[in-house]
Amino acid sequence: MKKHKTLGEFIIEKQAEFRYSSGELSKLINAIRLAAKVVNHEVNKAGLVDIIGASGDTNIQGENQQKLDVMANEKFIQTLTNREIVCGIASEEEDDFITINSLDKKHQNKYIVLIDPLDGSSNIDVNVSVGTIFSIYRRVTPIGTPVTLDDFLQPGRNQVAAGYVIYGTSTMLVYTTGHGVNGFTLNPAIGTFYLSHPNMCYPENGRIYSVNEGNYIHFPQGVKDYIKYCQKEEDDRPYTSRYIGSLVSDFHRNMIKGGIYMYPKSSKTQDGKLRLLYECNPMALIAEQANGKASDGFRRILDIQPEELHQRTSFFCGSKKMVEKTEEFMLKSPS
Fold first, then answer.
1. What is the largest CA-CA distance in the chain?
2. Which residue in 197, 203, 309, 319 has its CB near the most CB atoms, within 10 A?
3. CA distance 70 to 83
């Protein structure tokens, strides 16, 4: 029987690929792994205890927070803070970034983490897969000083690592450090992640499009035209429509099977709905490392210069040829 490599073994083996090979990034990935196991445990017992439903609070975006949103946010912040690895954390659930001082009180840590602790949490009540998305950068301000907003407002191309955890029929951690994408599945009996999906790649083309067609009337003309193109009976079309409403789940399926995920701006959401820093940048890095593409319809997601912590954007991500075809339609109707 073939022995699968554990996530811990894989991190050690690949340490040399990381150009700042000091061991800190490995510790950081391990901290995320630990927090993910705790959140996974809570998600899996959600129907048994009083942790489903709304918490009664709203986050900075004015969205209703679910009880598991709050719990996941606390667990990731607590784990990353206690490990003394990061100098700052920004979360989709927090109004502002969090400054973390090192044990010697001299702000010596080099990494910041941006995180969406529980993506798709409104689906918890109906037992649909949800996830965690994370993004890691090296700070740009001098070591020895507290982090500032500049450390977090970096374009996505500066990410040193990004990944997601999907809590589904099996729990997987998928991540990249800029050398391809690898997926690890949790064995719940012993609490260990094993390498199950090495070198994950998007098929260059696909036959699935994922978009909330209930918002069709509000979409830009270019998106409407692309959807009609997907539905046309011609060549290998019509394509199949699949939309879960959980970014991690839709992204994960499309990366394995080939497809495109779309969340465009609309007359209801003039700036788009997805967050550039917590959702789009990390998923864009993973997509590009997996032979896919990510765009706002006109430009590469990873080249966008963020201007605020909770900035929103249009998002088209998936198999390269499908994203390029979408951009063609967008350019024909730029308004």
1. 65
2. 319
3. 20
Q: Which of 153, 59, 172 is nearest to 112 (CA)?
A: 153
**Among 174, 175, 165, which Cα is nearest to 130's?**
165
Distance CA 130, CA 247 (A): 8
The encoded tokens of residue 16 equal 């040399």
Collapsing DSSP to helix, strand or coil, 332 comes out as: helix
- Tokens standing for 53? 């439903």
Provide the token pair at 71: 């719990």
pLDDT digits 0-9 by tens, 9-66: 998 888 777 666 567 888 888 999 999 998 888 887 765 545 444 544 555 554 545 6
User: What is the end-to-end Cα distance of the chain in Å, rounded?
Assistant: 58
User: What backbone phi and psi angles, to 5 degrees, belong to 171?
Assistant: -100, 125
Q: How many CA atoms lie within 13 A of 48 on its CB side?
A: 5
Q: Are 301 and 313 in contact (CB under 8 A)?
A: yes
